[in-house]
Amino acid sequence: MRMYDIIQKKRDGGVLSAEEIEFFVNGYTASEIPDYQASALMMAIFLKGMNDEETAVLTQSMAYSGDTVDLSRFGTLSVDKHSTGGVGDKTTLIVAPIAASVGCKVAKMSGRGLGHTGGTVDKLESVPGYRTSLSSDDFLSQVEKVGVAVIGQTGNLAPADKKMYALRDVTATVGSIPLITSSIMSKKLAAGSHSIVLDVKVGSGAFMKTVEDARTLAEKMVEIGKRCGRNMTALLTDMNTPLGHNVGNSLEIIEAVNVLKGEKTGDLREVCLALASNMISLSLGIPIDEALKKAENAVESGAALKKMTEWISEQGGDASYITDTSRFEKPKFSRSVKATQSGYIASMDAEKIGISAVELGAGRASKTDEIDHAAGIVIAKKTGEYVKKGDELCVLFTNNCACLDEAEHKYLDSLAFSDEKPSERPLIYGVVG
Ligand code: URA
Question: What values do phi and psi take at 360, rounded to 5?
């Protein structure tokens, strides 16, 4: 079999056989197929798509391209959640400790930033000492003891996805339903949780721009998960504006802590409570309204914040950064971005805001770029709010002052104003599964 023929077949709109897909996944994982051929195939799949059978075979061969985690010791309590990627999406940092504090077992493998979206692993690495890589024994005993462990795609879990994810990030091949389905579900299957809650983002800052595409993606992922014996739910949540107010790695940890302290209300808290209650409901087998009460109580009682501190510290992180978030490094440069006109903010293009944050150093423009953990954006005004010319719209933070002009330009370009208050969008468009 030749990689050239597989690329050509997909380029011309053909359907790949299971053998061809497995040949690619195994060869690329073993570094026998070079990046340039893998990139060409990713682009062909991006442009020509894959049918359900191809997507299922791709997902399963990626899931079993390396080790898998055996969580059977936790019975039905093991639960995972995964977001399809957004801007300002720090939900894992909030829902994982909420669920763990009520008795769920959260054994989670997270990703790095991809394109304009942030990644939980990059965020967690802004806490000094936090280990995103644990041996399988340490991972399992931490879940047993603390109820939560969040690691990166280290070790040999779904190594095919690890390579493909990094490649797609820099070859404009992220927003493809079969590639996202196989990427997310291969990691979820390898990571072994009995129940999985998917947060499928919809809107300008998401890979899925329409509710229809997001629903298709959700249905495909739920179907593959169920086919493999997992308990699945997917929520379709809004990503037309960044979630919460902070975008950037340590800035997002700070905001997550504020939600767990009960200091912050709004969209972020609402989406997190919906996700956490679905995790709790699946894992503990209780009705959703009872699960929601447990989640709210975990935040109000401080149990979830205590769990976060315990989790970070158990994983090597300096938990004093959680108890006192003012300890995070302050970047050298900041700029207050002012409104150039008066009016209601009619819309924010969350993708452009994500790109502006990448520009500031919060994400990577190429595979080997270093992240500036302190860089990012604190948004002062969001969609639906009225601003007067000269009011502060946001503050940009970076350690590289050369990027401030471009980041400001991108931020301003992301906003549209109107004289009339825009109608409110729902935060949650639906539930699948
Ligand atoms: N998140 C993933 O894990 N993979 C994707 O392809 C997109 C978002």
Answer: -75, -15
Pocket test for ligand 1, best of 83, 170, 180 (most atoms within 8 A of CB): 180
Q: Write the pLDDT tens digit of every residue in 205-236.
A: 888 899 999 999 999 999 999 988 899 999 99
Structural contact between residues 200 and 234, judged by C-beta atoms closer than 8 angstroms = yes
Burial category of 59 from C-beta neighbours within 10 Å (exposed 0-12, middle 13-18, buried 19 and up) = buried
Indicate if ligand 1 lies below 6 Å from the C-beta of 152.
Answer: no
Centre of ligand 1 to C-alpha 105, Å, is 23
Residue with CA nearest ligand 1 atom 1:
84
CA dihedral 163, 168, 174, 176 (to 10 degrees): -80
* Residues whose CB falls within 8 Å of the CB of residue 380, separated by 6 or more in sequence, listed in order: 245, 391, 392, 393, 394, 395
118 Cβ closer than 6 Å to some ligand 1 atom: no
Given a cut of 70, is residue 367 above it in pLDDT? no
Which of 110, 165, 198 has the most ligand 1 atoms within 8 A of CB, as the residue to mutate?
A: 165
On whether the pTM is more than 0.85, the answer is yes
Is the shortest distance between the CB of 85 and ligand 1 below 6 Å?
yes
Query: 238 vs 358, 386, 415, CA distance in Å?
Result: 21, 21, 17
